[in-house]
Write a structure and sequence with these properties.
This protein is of the alpha/beta class. Helices cover 41% and strands 16% of the residues. It has helices at residues 16-24, 45-50, 74-84, 103-111, 164-170, 181-191, 212-232, 239-264, 270-292; strands spanning 3-9, 32-38, 60-63, 89-92, 98-99, 116-122, 145-146, 153-154, 160-163, 196-205. The protein has an eight-stranded mixed β-sheet, sandwiched between helices. Strands 7-8 form a two-stranded antiparallel sheet. A hairpin with a 6-residue loop joins strand 7 and strand 8 (153-154). Helix 7 runs parallel beside helix 9 (270-292) and helix 8 (239-264) runs antiparallel to helix 9 (270-292). The longest helix is centred in the C-terminal third of the chain and has 26 residues, at 239-264. 40% of the residues are buried.
Length: 301
């Protein structure tokens, strides 16, 4: 089995070296390649990648951005890399995370049996203590994520591993949902009758956004696209749904004002609570946009 490790990057000079170092520490000794999909980086990240040509097997850089066209997201970088990949299986990771030393071996072992596997996400290595949730409360820490009101589970794209046969059957990542393309792909895979296997032995150390603005933006983008995907896969929304969404934003705004006061008076844990609030407020406002946005054609992706 040959493995293609796919790694998208846009201006990742602050973190990509750590991920590449982690890849050099993999215990699996089989045949594999590393494809870095450069999405038009303007920093030194590609120079850093070039330093690993003699340290990583089959390492190559492919260009995912063609100016003056608009720069697309990670989904596009992955799609470009998959077209270039030679492997029997594709294993995905990202420039701001780190994989553990047994990650590739565990993914390869699982892919012998299962068509589609995902790694476990770990949050404590790369994030400050004040940001961390209670152990076991983070997504994909103990199993697949669950959409609750839609009958499909999902996982983060930076933890994916799947056989080439899945790619040939299901196709590439959708262009319609740039921020939750991974969720949509998981649901598309499950609609095709393919099960997703959680592989806890493979660990991805995941880096959270660490500023309120960044967390708000991420929550807003994810909230909008996630709502769109749920509608795309059959969840009904109406005027009542929209009114409830607006009411939630109003209630959450009041909570945010209270948390800001707690932060100003130096209450313990207020910084974390306000950071979590920023993400949640972004999600709620994104949800409203996702209700209002027209759906793409069902043939998308």
């Amino acid at each position: 089995m040959m493995i293609s490790v796919l790694l998208p990057c846009f201006n990742g000079e602050k973190t990509i070296k750590n991920q590449l170092d982690a890849l050099t520490q993999q215990t699996w000794t089989g045949d594999w390649e590393v494809i870095v999909s450069n999405n038009g980086s303007t920093d030194n990240s590609m120079k850093i990648v070039e330093q690993f040509y003699d340290r990583l097997p089959g390492l190559k850089i492919v260009e995912a951005y063609t100016p003056p066209e608009p720069r697309l997201g990670a989904y596009h970088s992955y799609n470009v890399a998959m077209k270039e990949a030679k492997g029997d299986v594709f294993v995905l990771c990202e420039a701001d995370d780190e994989v553990n030393s047994g990650w590739l071996a565990a993914m390869e072992e699982a892919l012998k049996t299962y068509e589609f596997v995902v790694a476990r996400m770990e949050y404590r290595k790369l994030n400050p203590e004040w940001m961390l949730p209670e152990i076991g409360q983070s997504e994909q820490e103990n199993g697949l994520c669950n959409a609750h009101d839609v009958p499909y589970e999902y996982a983060f794209g930076c933890t994916f591993g799947f056989r080439r046969s899945v790619y040939e059957k299901i196709g590439e990542f959708s262009t319609e949902f740039p921020f939750v393309f991974d969720t949509e792909y998981c649901w598309r895979v499950q609609e095709a009758g393919i099960k997703i296997h959680f592989t806890p032995e493979a660990v991805v150390h995941y880096r959270l956004r660490d500023t309120a603005n960044a967390r708000y933006a991420q929550g807003k983008n994810w909230g909008e696209d996630f709502t769109m995907v749920k509608r795309f896969y059959g969840q009904k929304t109406n005027f009542i749904s929209l009114i409830k969404a607006y009411i939630s934003v109003i209630k959450y705004s009041i909570q945010g004002a209270f948390l800001w006061i707690l932060l100003m008076v130096g209450r313990p844990n207020a910084k974390k609570r306000l950071s979590d609030w920023a993400w949640g407020m972004g999600w709620l406002r994104g949800n409203i946009k996702g209700i209002l946005r027209p759906l793409p054609a069902k043939s998308a992706g």
